[in-house]
Specification:
The complex is a heterodimer of chains A (about 70) and B (about 750).
Chain A: E1 4-5, E2 14-16, E3 24-32, E4 35-43, H1 54-58, H2 60-69
Chain B: H1 3-10, H2 20-24, H3 31-39, H4 43-53, H5 57-63, H6 68-71, H7 83-93, E1 109-113, H8 117-128, E2 132-136, H9 143-146, H10 154-166, E3 170-172, H11 179-188, E4 191-194, H12 201-204, E5 221-222, H13 233-252, H14 292-300, H15 309-312, H16 315-319, H17 324-336, H18 345-349, H19 356-360, H20 367-380, H21 386-399, E6 406-408, E7 418-421, H22 425-429, H23 431-444, E8 449-453, H24 458-462, H25 466-482, E9 487-490, H26 493-502, E10 508-510, H27 511-518, E11 531-534, H28 543-555, H29 579-582, H30 584-597, E12 601-604, H31 607-615, E13 620-622, H32 623-627, H33 643-662, E14 677-679, H34 681-690, H35 694-707, E15 710-713, E16 719-723, E17 729-736, E18 742-750, E19 753-757
Parallel strand pairs in B: 1-2, 1-4, 2-3, 4-5, 7-8, 7-9, 9-10, 11-12, 12-13, 14-18
Antiparallel strand pairs in B: 6-8, 15-16, 16-17, 17-18
Helix pairs in contact in B: 1-17, 3-4, 3-14, 4-7, 5-7, 7-14, 8-13, 17-20, 23-33, 27-28, 30-31
The chains are: A alpha+beta (about 70), B alpha/beta (about 750).
Chain lengths: ~70, ~750
């Protein structure tokens, strides 16, 4: 499964508060209704906490959710 | 739904029925389309409409006596459209005549005896269909008189006859129309049609032919009785067309009779509401005929008959740009899809299930059943989008949960004759009014009044969740039985409807009837300005309930006005069928449209109607605001509480009643409620729009702090908390204040699950 790049912004000024680590782009698996995607998202390299920014959640992600719901 | 059922349902929508003019025309010219084009100045396109339908259009358009005019609906408001004059105008003014494209030769030949309109029309149709046609007449010179063409300019007649010849029709001038000729031609050709203007069936000594097909006892021979004097030219041409169609079917070995029910003029089922149409007299025809301007003006008088009775009055039906017949097809197709995208999910889930369309429809098209059945089917097959109704179902679960639900006898009593059942939305909207109402009922109703706070199950019913709905009704029944089966006093019209239909064993009475019978509140307050009464759509078929409300208004000394659609024709506020969950923007449009129809301050007796109309900017009161005001000042329209406030209202109502009435301890509030959280106005607005509850935010902050799921951004005091309590992941943007509390700036959510990160 190839990794989709959906974010163009730089998230290097974000840190995971618990680990104190800077977020880095990581391949992340997203699931919804029996569909699975691999997307590059900023994540904490230690604990794996992933950031889903507002623009993605309400934009592309909402669009895909909707498409999958109508499948 | 199978194909047959689909067709049965589709047939009940009459929008696609032909207009009356077209049905009445023996040749079924679409005068509606013709007038539409002509009114737009598109003369050539209008002419093409005539050329598509009329045989020898150059002639027929000039001699047509418009039998459609008497049927034209405009005749009931000013006078029927003068189609005859419009056709003549079009025939003389059109610059372009569509070319004729006859079908390839079929290797079959037909003979026609006579040269009247039936003969010419039959020849025209047969030749276009690829038959070799020969017209046998006494003399070409007979044509003008035989075909009523005396007034038709010679060059026009010549031109049309020339077009017939171009199609391959030949004229033979040597024949007397007589039985002998018929026999000779039958022997030499595949089929013979005898124009009754030249030789009627009776003169041939052949039994009168079946009028539907013109076939005779002689195989291959088609004839007709002599037409009555004064028969319309269009009807004579239609006779020829009928013969041509029968000959074609005979040659193809097809049934001569099947599917010809609507060949002759018929009465269309199309209904067109003309109650708002102003009378307008026909444009007089000058001796030289219409000119461009007068023709357009006359064509503009066409009502463009269509039904759309339901669509006109429903923002939902209008929104999807079709009408029930097309929707039935879309819903059927939606259910049939195995792989691929189902296009009609939103259509199915956006119906308010209010039934106005059915009430307006002359054929009572079952839109509500269509949508509700489709929802049930989708739920059953696991194809219902989870996002469609989840919020409403969660709200229902919450209303039935231990923090909101109550089923208790009146304090100090052991049996009760009554139980007050305000539903779940009234406590969410006006908890104080519910408390005051219950106090009044306890004082006035003989035999004691219990209290039952829970949801009637309407959200489960509307969302097609039959299992959940059945469970909800069972739980309600169990509570009611535990209270000793008292008479249920309902305040919410949706509850009243649900109980009547799904808990028929229970006695119910509306709050309004009970107040009228057992005593009005001591100090109602009535606003000074005019009030306009909005009937909730769930009262559409509850004449008694609507009457009780009006009686109560009279007792309060008020006579509210009513909007144009009221009573049985009332409109939904946008809450019905869970529209707001499936399609929030459309729900807002519906509410705004309804609000606009109410003059002055709105008055209603459904909490959701009141709140949605208030949300749409309409000052609106609930009847309880008047009956049980907070103090003795006239009530002022309050804003609609938001989604979080609604929950809070229910919880607080229960807590207060348990405290003050039953003196029982309330369940402890969940620990996330201990957080001190403030919201910026922008955050509140965003959360309302995105349907994120304050409790979702509190739970997220609490869990994120506990689990360390917080992200920070360099140089910003704002941080980001995330939590996925069930099927939704929440994100909360916040900062901490000096006192250790939270200030929330923003929140968003998604349903997709982040299930793994690769290192």
């Amino acid at each position: 499964m190839s990794t989709l790049k959906v974010l163009s912004e730089d998230f290097s000024n974000w840190t995971c508060e618990a680990c104190g680590e800077t977020l880095v782009p990581r391949p992340v698996t997203l699931d919804y209704l029996e569909s699975r995607f691999r997307v590059e998202l900023p994540a904490c390299p230690r604990c794996g906490l992933v950031l889903v920014p507002e623009s993605l959640a309400l934009g592309k992600m909402a669009e895909v959710e909707r498409l999958l719901e109508d499948k | 739904m199978d194909q047959a059922e689909l067709h049965r349902i589709e047939a009940r929508c009459i929008q696609e029925e032909p207009p009356r003019c077209r049905a009445a025309c023996p040749l079924h010219v679409d005068a509606r389309e013709f007038c539409t084009l002509l009114a737009a100045g598109r003369i050539d396109a209008a002419w093409a409409v005539l050329c598509r339908t009329l045989p020898l259009p150059g002639i027929l358009a000039r001699i047509c006596d418009a039998p459609c005019r008497a049927a034209c609906l405009r005749s009931q408001c000013g006078g029927g459209i003068d189609m005859a004059a419009l056709e003549r105008f079009c025939a003389t003014s059109a610059r372009k005549t569509p070319p004729l494209h006859p079908l390839p030769s079929r290797g079959k030949n037909a003979a026609i005896i006579g040269c009247g309109l039936p003969a010419l029309a039959a020849a025209w149709d047969l030749a276009r269909k690829g038959f070799a046609v020969r017209i046998h007449c006494r003399a070409m010179a007979d044509i003008p008189a035989s075909a009523y063409l005396e007034d038709c300019p010679t060059d026009i007649v010549e031109r049309e006859l020339e077009r017939l010849r171009t199609l391959g029709v030949t004229f033979v001038e040597d024949a007397e129309p007589a039985p002998k000729l018929v026999e000779a031609l039958l022997a030499a050709t595949d089929a013979v049609f005898v124009d009754p203007r030249a030789c009627p069936a009776e003169a041939l000594g052949i039994p009168a032919p079946d009028p539907t097909t013109l076939e005779t006892t002689r195989p291959g021979l088609f004839a007709a009785p002599s037409p009555a004097p004064g028969t319309s030219p269009a009807a004579l041409a239609a006779l020829g067309r009928k013969a041509a169609l029968s000959i074609e079917r005979l040659m193809q070995g097809a049934s001569l009779t099947a599917g010809r029910e609507r060949e002759a003029p018929f009465a269309s089922r199309l209904y067109t509401n003309i109650s708002d149409v102003a009378p307008l007299a026909p444009v007089p025809v000058p001796p030289t005929g219409y000119d461009d301007t007068s023709a357009r003006e006359e064509a503009r008088r066409c009502l463009r008959c269509e039904c759309m009775e339901c669509v006109r009055h429903c923002a939902y039906l209008e929104h999807f740009k079709g009408y029930p017949k097309t929707y039935a097809r879309q819903i059927y197709n939606n259910a049939s899809i195995v792989m691929g995208t189902r296009q009609a999910n939103t259509l199915i889930n956006s119906c308010m299930l209010c039934g106005l369309c059915e009430e307006l429809c002359p054929e009572h098209f079952p839109m509500v059943a269509l949508c509700l059945d489709a929802r049930r089917d989708m739920v059953q097959r696991g194809k219902m989008p989870p996002s469609a109704h989840e919020f409403a179902l969660r709200d229902m679960t919450f209303a039935n949960g231990e923090s909101c639900a109550v089923a208790k006898l009146q304090p100090g009593t052991t049996t009760n004759r009554w139980v007050f059942f305000p539903g779940c939305q009234l406590p969410a909207s006006a908890p104080d009014a519910v408390e005051r109402t219950y106090a009044h009922l306890r004082e006035t109703l003989p035999g004691g009044t219990a209290l039952l706070l829970r949801c009637c199950g309407a959200p489960a019913h509307w969302s097609g969740r039959q299992d959940l709905f059945a469970a909800s009704v069972d739980a309600l029944r169990a509570d009611w039985e535990a209270l000793g089966t008292p008479t249920l006093v309902t305040a919410c019209p949706t509850c009243a409807q649900m109980l009547r239909e799904h808990l028929p064993e229970a006695n119910t009475a509306s709050l309004w009837a009970v107040l009228g019978q057992y005593g009005m509140p001591p100090s109602p307050a009535v606003p000074a300005g005019p009030l306009c009464l909005h009937d909730p759509c769930t009262t559409r078929h509850d004449d008694a309930l609507r009457a009780q409300v009006r009686t109560l208004c009279a007792a309060l000394g008020i006579t509210p006005t009513e909007p144009s659609l009221s009573g049985r024709l009332t409109e939904c506020c946008g809450f019905g069928g869970l529209l707001a969950d499936a399609n929030a923007p459309l729900a807002a449009t519906v509410a705004a449209r309804r609000a606009e129809k109410l003059d002055g301050t709105g008055l209603t007796y459904c909490a959701m109607c009141r709140d949605l109309l208030a949300q749409a900017g309409k000052p609106c009161l609930h009847l309880l605001d008047l009956l049980f005001p907070a103090d003795d000042t006239p009530p002022t329209p309050r804003p609609a509480p938001g989604i979080s406030k609604r929950r809070e209202n229910r919880v607080r109502l229960r807590e207060r009643l348990m405290d003050t009435l039953w003196r029982e301890a309330n369940a402890p509030r969940p620990e996330h409620e201990s957080l001190a959280i403030a919201y910026t106005p922008a955050a509140k607005e965003i959360m309302e729009k995105r349907r994120i509850l304050e409790s979702d935010v509190a739970r997220t902050l609490f869990a994120a702090k506990r689990d360390g799921h917080i992200l920070a951004r360099a140089g910003s005091p704002r941080r980001l908390a995330t939590h996925r309590p069930s099927t939704v992941t929440y994100w909360v943007e916040f900062e901490c204040d000096a006192a250790g509390g939270y200030v929330v700036h923003n929140a968003w959510s998604h349903r997709m699950r982040v299930s793994g990160v690769e290192s």
